[in-house]
Specification:
Number of helices: 6
Distance between the termini: 42 Å
Shape: globular
Helix content: 40-55%
Number of strands: 10
Strand content: 15-25%
Structural class: alpha+beta
Oligomer: single chain
Radius of gyration: 19 Å
Order of helices and strands: EEEHHHHEEEEEHEEH
Length: 215
């Protein structure tokens, strides 16, 4: 039975199966990258946003599991105090401060992969009928529906899950947006095909260059 291994440091997903070479699976972010415009953002700014987003998501995970050390968090990440307060307010209004089992949650930030299409990802929060992504930025109407459609594909059980993005700003304001888009899954599939075709093309070129160098 194949086993999914996730390297949090490199953000790589590996499919491990006895008797077969380890397979590096593309993650959802990498697949939809051709439609992103992050290359227009200066690298130091982008890296700072990435770090803040990672810290924010980790705090959410701890809080939702009733395992967050509030004093340490406020001391170590003062810039995230207001966004986390916004999350707490959203959580209270959505779930009345219920712990995870009472909310009917199935997974929180648990890596998963598609057995047929061979891609992987980690959605923020998956309920029986809903799937959520938490963003420390404004809603992106191009990328976010694609990301949610891809994550929905990892949980293709019944009932169909409603995709939501909850967008927070640094002042603690938030907005919950319905990320449904009828075209998103089809476009994601095309992007996935593009990814694998690029991999195949690069292997073809490498094979050609290696063969030429051996002559």
């Amino acid at each position: 039975m194949p086993e999914l291994k996730f390297n949090a440091l490199t953000h790589e997903y590996w499919l491990i199966e006895e008797g077969k070479p380890d397979l590096l699976l593309p993650n959802v972010t990498k697949i939809i990258d051709p439609l992103s415009e992050y290359h227009k953002i200066p690298k130091p700014v982008l890296e700072n946003k990435r770090i803040l987003g990672t810290q924010f998501h980790y705090a959410i995970k701890l809080y939702s599991n009733n395992d967050l050390d509030e004093e340490s968090f406020q001391r170590d990440f003062p810039e995230l105090i207001k966004p986390l307060e916004g999350f707490k307010d959203w959580w209270k209004k959505s779930f009345s401060n219920s712990p995870i089992p009472s909310c009917g949650m199935s997974v929180v930030e648990e890596p998963a992969y598609h057995k047929k299409l061979l891609y992987a990802g980690t959605s923020d929060m998956v309920l029986i009928e809903d799937i959520y992504e938490f963003k420390l930025r404004k809603y992106n109407p191009i990328l976010d529906p694609l990301q949610l459609a891809a994550y929905k594909g990892l949980y293709s059980d019944f009932p169909d899950k409603k995709p939501w993005v909850v967008s927070f700003d640094m002042e603690g304001n938030y907005e919950q947006i319905d990320a449904s888009n009828k075209q998103a899954w089809g476009i994601f599939r095309k992007l996935l095909e593009h990814y694998w075709s690029e991999i195949k093309f690069q292997k073809l070129l490498e094979g050609y260059k290696n063969a030429c160098n051996r002559k």
